[in-house]
Amino acid sequence: MSSLRSHSLLLCGAFLALPSLATAQVVINEIQYDDESTDDREFVELYNAGASAVDISGWTLGGFDQVGPNTTFTIPAATILAPGGFYVLGAATVPNVNQVVGISNIWENDQETIELRDTSSLLVDFVCYEVNKALFALPAYREGEGLWGNFQSNLYTTTIESSWSRLRDGYDTNDNGRDFAITNLTPGATNNRPNLLPYFENFDSYAVDAVLPNWGGSFKPPFAIDPTALSLQNPNPIPASPTGGNAMIMWDSVGGGNYSMLLSDPSDELIFEAYVYFDALPRPAGEFETWSLLLQGGSCSFHNHPDPTGSLGGAVPFTANGNTGIGWVYHVTSAGGTLFLIDHNNGGWGATAQSTPTILGQITVTTGLNDGWQRLRLQATKGLAEGYFGGTLGQFDGTRIAGSIDGKVGGLAIGYREFMVNNGATRPPTIDFMVLSTNAASVSRFGNATPTSTGTPAISADSFPFLGNPNFGVTASNVPANSAIAMVVGFLEMTPPLDLTLFGAQPGSALFVTADIAVTVLTNGAGQGNLPLALPSTPALAGAPLHFQGFAIDIAIPYPALPIAQTPALKCVLAN
Fold first, then answer.
1. Domain CATH for 162
2. Are 202 and 243 in contact (CB under 8 A)?
């Protein structure tokens, strides 16, 4: 958090008051509150994100759940946290521990808030975890959605364990679900990862059943397999991918769920592309498998089944998944396979969530029709996600789904969970010829909208502005239906914006882009107007920006001199 907070808490009276704000620079940076067996490796790491030292002597780290306050630990006198410094409270077995506060079960394994308070009991930072279990009836006490999913750290080897970690040291947007992800733990050391992008693997250089480098896992990391041969990590043979050779598989062969992440610095502009194997053979009645491939986010340790249709759990839909970011989600049930593109945002599911996932589209996957090895692509930036199923690597063909998102910083993660009697009949996520990169083709918005008589106009790109992309275009929405909207196209931003209130428009009206071209577009019955703009394959245009803004005439608004409503501006940077 970026501020000090004070609040009063009276659990017995079920009263909860929100804190007031003042400046702070120390955050809860990493948490491990549950490990297998005796829970003897738990810790909380503090980090000084500021430019000056902080005296944290006498500060307390404690928490509460629905029963009441739990154990509180006081930091000893003469404890100074240097800029960029770490302070670890935990068990003696934790590497780099500064203050031993217990032996085992130090923090609750679920439904808990951990609070950091200063000597005046002002709340400096807090993290709510496993919020899917409906701990907090007053959502405003959570930062965003809290940490929604379930967690457990497990020792696959003596060196691979996991924790909830901030994406980078001190990274704090006051939204726990987008600030933290499960990754390999680093108590007393930096959470920051090297930038591995562009990342490419065809997995052919690794031995069969070897652990893949640069990946972490909640129970097991990903492995290399020969997809055509049965092995310890490959439950059943399948055909080779279109590129042949080895592939990657991600699961826990013991059963249940698993989660893995690429150990690379996060980004808000990511492109994933690979061949992915789709087994659409209907499973036995009542049995199913689910997997997720996520950008700008992650999942919980167990990858609890994502259930966007509310059907997997029967009478009680599953709501504990905890996926964040944008992701392809695949279900294969007794009815066959379904692939969804979902904006998970910050992780909430079900009735107790502040915000729930948005299904951008879905594709039926059928045995013998479109299953087997398929090209799968997913690209996400701050405002747009676009996916392709099938088609050709690097091309804009196949089945396409796209939609606007509230994109955030994150990485690449994969989750899998099975509900199968026979593990040998499963098909965990199996991937070959994987490419993850960033790209200069970006989409962003700036400026403000002004309302019509019925709503607030919006503007979005239909696809990413890659040169040669036939699917590119711009759509204005939330404008008057069956009317017209002027789409202004400019090569430059208008600096400063042209104040249209000088001509009689409503307050806040402005032209944000140079009006090099203006095109009138008719809107449909849903209040949407589309300007298709297939982009040329001209390398010299790489890096050039295009700007768009829409203006709708609405005589029902009380500004007769210039009765217009506007969208924000949209900036699209072209790229090869």
1. 2.60.40.1260
2. yes
CB 552 within 8 A of CB 480: yes
Cβ-contact 557, 454 below 8 angstroms:
no
Cα 238 → chain centroid: 31
- This prediction has a pTM of 0.86
Render pLDDT for 493-538 as a digit per residue (tens, 0 to 9).
999 999 999 999 999 999 999 999 999 999 999 999 999 999 999 9
The answer to whether residue 193 sits within a structural domain is no
Q: According to the model, what pLDDT value does residue 514 have?
A: 95
- Give the Cα separation of 324 and 428 in Å (integer): 20
Judgement on whether residues 399 and 481 belong to the same structural domain of the protein: no
CATH number, domain containing residue 258: 2.60.120.560
State residue 19's pLDDT score. Answer: 33
Q: Please state, in angstroms and as integers, the Cα–Cα distance from residue 305 to each residue in 173, 288, 311, 320, following that order.
A: 27, 10, 11, 8
* Domain range for 70: 3-169
Does one domain contain both 390 and 303? yes
Q: Indicate if the pLDDT at residue 574 is higher than 80.
A: yes
Domain count, the chain: 3
Q: Is the pLDDT of residue 1 over 50?
A: no
Q: Flag whether 32 is in a domain.
A: yes
No. of helices (H) and no. of strands (E), the chain: 1, 42
Distance in angstroms (rounded) separating the CA atoms of residues 259 and 348 = 18
How is residue 443 written in tokens?
A: 């989409």
pLDDT in tens, 20-54: 222 359 999 999 999 988 899 999 999 999 999 99
Residues 242 and 281 both lie in one domain: yes
Q: 136 is written with which tokens?
A: 């907090």
At 533, list the tokens: 């703009």
